[in-house]
Design goal:
The protein is an all-beta fold. The chain is 3% helix and 44% strand. The chain contains 1 helix and 12 strands. The chain has a 10-stranded antiparallel sheet with strand order 3-6-7-12-9-10-11-8-4-5, with no helix packed on it. The protein has a two-stranded antiparallel sheet with strand order 1-2. Strand 10 and strand 11 form a beta hairpin. The longest helix has 4 residues. The chain is elongated, with a radius of gyration of 18 Å.
């Protein structure tokens, strides 16, 4: 059968191997959150959804403790021009207290490799070209599938 924890704020407690590093029974040893589901990725200019027409738009997430892993694919065929294209609408905001670099792998037909530039405390991140360390414009991404995965910490 399933292990069911019926009390809010409870979870699975792991005792530390080295008690000098962590106090037994402390919250740092408690796995109290697991969730998976779908989310709808969107393109943003600043904090505003760019709208337009999406013909590919899906995402999945797994959250274990404070770690969130996203997978996504999206394509917008009628994006407006803008300076920095952001991707967002994440199911959980990026931590405002952790220095998140995150792991990301993002691809689009016009670029070899892109990443998501992490901005603390937000739920949208700037797309950044790794090969040239520049930001792709909306026009460069329009009509191309942008797909990848991104792992980050939330509060």
């Amino acid at each position: 059968g399933n292990l069911v924890i019926g009390t809010a704020g409870k979870g699975i407690m792991f005792h530390p191997h080295d008690e000098t590093v962590s106090t037994p029974g402390s919250d740092s040893n408690l796995l109290g959150d697991y969730e998976e589901g779908t989310w709808t990725p969107r393109f943003f200019h600043g904090n505003s959804d760019i709208g337009g027409t999406y013909n590919v738009e899906f995402g999945y997430y797994i959250k274990i403790g404070k770690n969130v892993t996203l997978t996504f694919s999206l394509r917008n065929t009628t994006m407006d021009n803008g300076n920095i294209c952001r991707m967002g609408n994440f199911p959980f905001s990026v931590s405002s207290t952790w220095n998140n670099m995150g792991y990301q792998q993002v691809t689009a037909a016009t670029f070899d490799s892109m990443g998501l530039e992490t901005n603390q405390g937000t739920n949208n991140q700037a797309l950044r070209r790794i090969d040239e360390e520049s930001y792709p414009s909306f026009t460069q991404l329009q009509g191309n599938i942008v797909a990848g995965s991104y792992t980050y910490c939330t509060d």
